[in-house]
Amino acid sequence: MGLFNRKEGGIMDAIRCDEKDFLIWKWRPAGQDVNSTKKENVIRSGSSLSVRPGQAAVFLYQNTSGEYDIIKGPYNGTLKTENLPILASIVGAAFAGGTPYPAEVYFFNLAKNMEIPFTIPYFRVVPAEPEFKAYDVEIAIKGTVAFEVSSQPEFIKYLFEAWGGSNTTLEELNQKMKALVTQEIKQIVTNAPKDTGIFVMHMNSLIGEMGQYILARIQQNIANRFGVLATSVIISDIRYDEESDSYQRIKRVTEEQAHRFNLENEKNALLAYEIQRQTMQVDANVRNTMVQREAEIQLEHQADMLSRMRQEAQYAQHAQTQSAAIQANLESQSANLDAHTINRQSDVMKEGMQNLGKMSGMNLGTGQMNPVGMMTGMAMGASVAGQMGNMLNKMGESMTATPQRPQQGTPATPPPLPNQASYYLALNGQQFGPYDMAALQQLVQNGQINAKTQAWTEGMPSWVEMGNIPQLAVLFAQSTNIPTPPPIPR
């Protein structure tokens, strides 16, 4: 399809925009004013299109109910039926190829971060707090609004609706926007205390938040009115009329409130500190009580253990003494029994000897010496003499032999020697004893004392560990071989 206007004819056009200060610029042939010729409404095949960076060319199709295409720069090319970067489906459907192609071309300035400075002189702002509503404050604001022209379809629509397709410069946009911006910002700041709860005296310390607050409320209105996108609102200064009576009154009241607030904060801080201190004291008392109770329980346990050790040692010593007495009694009874047996055997032998003498004089009816009786008496005498010798030998052995331990029952411990030393023990800071060697051996076997236990006896200059006393060290060397004693009968 050739985009050629047969009625207009002429050389091909160069479609481009060389303007410096523009927001919207409608293309027309060189040297022609806008809307002065039909050529600006008809694009011919073979014309060149040049779109600079930061620009956008918008093709508006007059016979397609406002359809348009956007070509963003940079772009350079020749417009032909085959390569038109327009809506090919619309072109083909509208003209079926080979017919003239009516279209208007608009150039938009896509420059980023264009700014409009604004200064709003003093205006009245009424605080939202009930106690300050009688005092209005005079405020002046200074800042800038940054904006850009967006190539998004909805903003292209906004631009056409806002400017009606006429040429518009950035200066014209600034003048019209500045009036709206000033009016909008003044209204937004006036209502800010009521809408946000911001205290009017705090606005100058919240200029960043105030800029975001204003931007959110003017962005859509600026897009609808001017077809541009507001990107930021920078508040550089919010100033109060400090000479006014209202400002001075609010300042005095707020300073008094701040002073009372500080006093209240100090009071609360002191109260919190006192509560914390008391809590820490209570915690310390509780901990001390718990530690003291644990110490008391430990001391009670140690005292009970020492009492049991003392009772067991006394019982062991008593049992040893009883065992020694029983052994001595048994040995005495055995000796008496041996003596009685010897006496009884002596009596029997004596009677035998007497009878033996009678046998030698036994009358055989011959009235002579009885040789048979004599020989019989001699044999019996020899037998009796032998028995007497054996008996005396046994008695001598029983008297000289070492007493034997009983074969059954618990091994008996001999009574302590008269000159055997007795030792005192130091356990947990307390003194116990005295204990003889047998009692000490029993305590070692029961695990109640060890080689580190302190001991003392007469003649020693100071307390010494039992393992360092030669007389007591043997108890620990032999303790591993001594069998565990039977349980104490209940």
Question: How would you describe this structure to a colleague?
Answer:
- The chain contains 8 helices and 15 strands.
- It has 490 residues and is of the alpha+beta class.
- Among the domains are: 96 residues, no CATH class; 128 residues, Band 7 domain (Tetrahydropterin Synthase, Chain A, 2-Layer Sandwich), CATH 3.30.479.30; 56 residues, Dna Ligase, domain 1, CATH 3.30.1490.
- The longest helix has 116 residues.
- It is elongated, with a radius of gyration of 66 Å.
- The protein starts with 13 loop residues before the first strand and ends in a 12-residue tail after the last helix.
Rg, please? 66 Å
Could you name the CATH class of the domain at 114-241?
Answer: Alpha Beta
| Shape by Cα distribution | elongated
Order of helices and strands: EEEEEEEHEEEHHHEHHEEHEEH
Overall CATH architecture of the domain at 114-241: 2-Layer Sandwich
How many runs of DSSP E, i.e. beta strands?
15
Percent strand equals 15-25%
Instruction: Provide mean pLDDT, rounded.
Output: 74
Distance from first to last alpha carbon: 127 Å
Helix count equals 8
Quaternary structure: single chain
Helical residue percent band: 40-55%
Q: How is the main sheet built?
A: 5 strands, antiparallel
Q: From the helix content, strand content and strand pairing, which structural class follows?
A: alpha+beta
